[in-house]
């Protein structure tokens, strides 16, 4: 759940939220933030400390209408097992929302920054890369600290766990991706977001985004 930013926004919008986080530090920060919210929001928000790959310990099958798994697969050693556990929690017609690092665009960031050795390394096929067993999420992480995933492989994985791909978008087509990225002033930010939103829905731009947002829908 990280810092709980999205979870808190959803709770404020009226949704009932369950946040799962294994790290005590961000869990405490979310608890502190939640304590400042009105009682109605606190009542709609449940926090659980636990591992996301152990969802069967905490939740019954079909427990949720929506499951958000954003920027988690990139640090998972067993992404397909994790996805299967998340899909198990979806109610009929439920939505699984994923954001992953785009394996097809690993050279874009360093290339645009003029970091030619890193860009070239990202373009080179690496037989030692951890691509996962055939038919899996196709994770790759050669030359990178975090795993990246391919759209076609994840499409197959989602179909295999009965949450086939419903829609997908590119995230951060033009803007840098990283903890040190700074937001521009309000007027420019509005234009930036409008441009990113349009590009993230438009071919061929969405295919070279830093991140991919995939939505899988459980058969109803």
UniProtKB/TrEMBL annotation:
Keywords: Methyltransferase, Transferase. It comes from Streptomyces yaizuensis. GO terms for molecular function: methyltransferase activity. Signal peptide: none annotated. GO terms for biological process: methylation. It holds the Pfam family Methyltransf_11. This is Methyltransferase domain-containing protein. Residues 2-97 form the Methyltransferase type domain.
